[in-house]
Amino acid sequence: MSKAVRIVWDDALTSYDFGPGHPMAPVRVALTMGLARELGLLSGVDVAGCRPATDEELLMVHSRDYVAAVKEASATGRPALAHGIGTEDNPAFLGVHEASALIAGASLAAARAVWSGEAEHAINVAGGLHHAMPGMASGFCIYNDVALAIQWLLDQGASRVAYVDVDVHHGDGVQAMFYDDPRVLTISLHESPRTLFPGTGYPHETGADGTAVNVALPIGCGDTGWLRAFHAIVPPLLREFRPDVLVSQHGCDTHALDPLAHLMLSLDGQRRTYAALHELAHETAGGRWIATGGGGYEVVRVVPRAWTHLIAEVAGASLDPLTPTPDTWRVMVKELTGEVPPLNMTDGRHPVWRDFADGYDPADPVDRAIMATRKAVFPYYALDPMP
């Protein structure tokens, strides 16, 4: 059982709103917190607010010119195209700086809680904006809250921080910010850059001494292949790296229903990943775990249920997948979206997978992806790439 848990939340986190029709709809986090609340997961844990990240804090990972450009766009609503603001992906809107700085502040609050010992685990479901670059907005992301939390931990004295990103898109912004820093291990499992934005995340991108790790999975990969790849790569590397803190990004756009990508996971497979990261946090990082949300664009049937399972896992709660969704939450869904809500907390799947130690199949595209990554990085850790 986990010790103290911090859930960072403020209703103002839903102000990160690119407007009608944009995939990054803030209702997805509102429905997540509503579902978690109605299921009783927020009782008995510390739900705390946060303040926006200050300019000085943002400058730990972003350029001064970029922060100034975001603030200008925030005040005027005018694009800053040289910095990626005002595009179809990242529209300019009044208040964009304040909304983005609050998400960054929420991940900083989670990091402070864990590093200080106030909490063993902490979560910011509104966070996980992993595409933002030092001087550029990208992929619906303005400020890179996860990179900011990692840099803050390093500045406080953490000697090693591990970052595991299970979003369907490559965690390119976080990788870029720490690519040459051997204190930070970044592991990203994602759809192949040959078929999906941002076009990076190949196995040969290995960073400083193998501390950038990329598993590029083929389109159509489902629970079985995903979990096989995860367990073939993530546990052995975390056990060798032994981080002071584990930071994870949980984009749920790997789901089969997500409209922006091409993997085929179920809620049940995603839930297995959350449980595995929880166990690894205790095994390799002394229990210190900071979790965030991320991508996920099926905003009724997938995101709220996936991240409610994540909140339950972080909180050490037991949430039966067959649990019905509460009537009060179903009413909330209909009022906010007009859509028909899901009736329970499962997709009805029971994922099983073969351990990679059972053998490598060169005819299997998932196995080829696993082997490409293991060959690229395992020698840095004196690990045998072969099963």
UniProtKB/TrEMBL annotation:
Keyword Cell inner membrane: no
InterPro entries documented for this protein: AcuC (IPR003085), HDACs (IPR000286), His_deacetylse_dom (IPR023801), His_deacetylse_dom_sf (IPR037138), Ureohydrolase_dom_sf (IPR023696)
Protein origin, superkingdom: Bacteria
Pathway in which the depicted protein is active: Ketone degradation; acetoin degradation
Keywords associated with the record: Acetoin catabolism
Signal sequence range: none
Family matches, as Pfam families: Hist_deacetyl
Gene Ontology MF term list: histone deacetylase activity
Annotated family: Belongs to the histone deacetylase family.
Protein name from the UniProt record: Acetoin utilization protein AcuC
